[in-house]
């Protein structure tokens, strides 16, 4: 199993494609530039099975409909942010971009922590609010990775000054859900480079002393 990072859009939001050895794949946070993402997947000959959103801010959802309409695959998002996909005020696009970025409704609403089985993929869903109320992280133990969205970054953490953000809640999410994972776990961040749980435990200034 391998993963691929594709930065997309003006904020260079990381879309990730997790690929099984059989050629099927999962798409995480297709934020923009749908044609570029589709071309990348087609060029590699992969078969997408689903779109999984870590949260529904505009820079993580902009190419959702492009991908869904291409492959007719389900879209997953947390129940708390189901209306954000269709509301440009809630997803922040009107505030930050001055334009409405929306998608159609999701097909699967996540609630609670659970294990998802999609094709040959098995993922653990962790509720990690703080950056946004419905932020989730996807842990794929077989690949030793966690897709954290905008919860945890290399040397930083997600912003909490947006609607529904909560600094203390974010720190609790990171410490209780992410930092308990094996230190070699690779963190696939919503922006910037990847990191590891161990590296953030040792060097992230926002996590020291919590």
Number of domains: 1
Please name the CATH architecture: 4-Layer Sandwich
How would you sum up the major sheet? 6 strands, mixed
- What is the name of the CATH superfamily? Ribonuclease Z/Hydroxyacylglutathione hydrolase-like
Radius of gyration from the CA trace?
A: 16 Å
The largest sheet has its strands arranged as 1-2-3-4-5-6
Structural class by sheet pairing and helices: alpha/beta
Regions with little confidence, pLDDT below 50 for 5+ residues: none
What is the CATH level 1 assignment?
Alpha Beta
What is the CATH T-level topology?
Metallo-beta-lactamase, Chain A
Shape descriptor reads: globular
The share of residues in extended strands comes to 25-35%
What attributes does this structure have?
Metallo-B-lactamas; Metallo-beta-lactamase, Chain A; 210 residues; metal ion binding; zinc; single chain; MBL fold metallo-hydrolase; alpha/beta; MBL_Glyoxalase_II
How would you sum up this structure, described in words?
With 210 residues, the protein is an alpha/beta fold. The chain has a single domain (2-203), classed as Metallo-beta-lactamase, Chain A (4-Layer Sandwich). Helix content is 20%, strand content 30%. It is built from 5 helices and 14 strands. It has helices spanning 34-44, 64-71, 93-97, 167-178, 197-203, and strands spanning 2-8, 13-19, 24-28, 47-52, 75-78, 108-110, 114-118, 121-127, 136-140, 145-149, 152-153, 156-157, 186-189, 195-196. The protein has a 6-stranded mixed sheet with strand order 1-2-3-4-5-6, with helices on one face. Strands 7-8-9-10-13-14 form a 6-stranded mixed sheet. Helix 1 (34-44) packs across helix 2. The protein is globular, with a radius of gyration of 16 Å.
């Amino acid at each position: 199993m391998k993963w691929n990072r594709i930065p997309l859009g003006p904020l260079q939001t990381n879309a990730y494609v997790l690929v099984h050895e059989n050629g099927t794949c999962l798409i995480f946070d297709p934020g923009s530039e749908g044609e570029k993402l589709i071309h990348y997947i087609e060029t590699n000959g992969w078969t997408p099975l689903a779109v999984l959103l870590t949260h529904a801010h505009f820079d993580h959802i902009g190419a959702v409909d492009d991908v869904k309409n291409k492959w007719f695959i389900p879209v997953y998002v947390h129940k708390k942010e189901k209306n954000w996909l269709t509301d440009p005020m809630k997803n922040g696009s009107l505030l930050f971009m001055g334009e409405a970025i929306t998608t159609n409704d999701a097909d699967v609403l996540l609630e609670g922590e659970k294990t998802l089985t999609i094709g040959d993929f098995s993922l653990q869903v962790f509720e990690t609010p703080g950056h946004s109320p419905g932020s989730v992280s996807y842990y794929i133990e077989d690949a030793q990775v966690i897709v954290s969205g905008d919860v945890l970054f290399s040397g930083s953490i997600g912003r909490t000054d947006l609607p529904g953000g909560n600094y203390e809640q974010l720190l609790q999410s990171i410490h209780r859900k992410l930092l308990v994972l094996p230190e070699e776990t690779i963190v696939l961040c919503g922006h910037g480079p990847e990191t590891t749980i161990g590296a953030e435990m040792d060097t992230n200034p926002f996590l020291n002393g919590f």
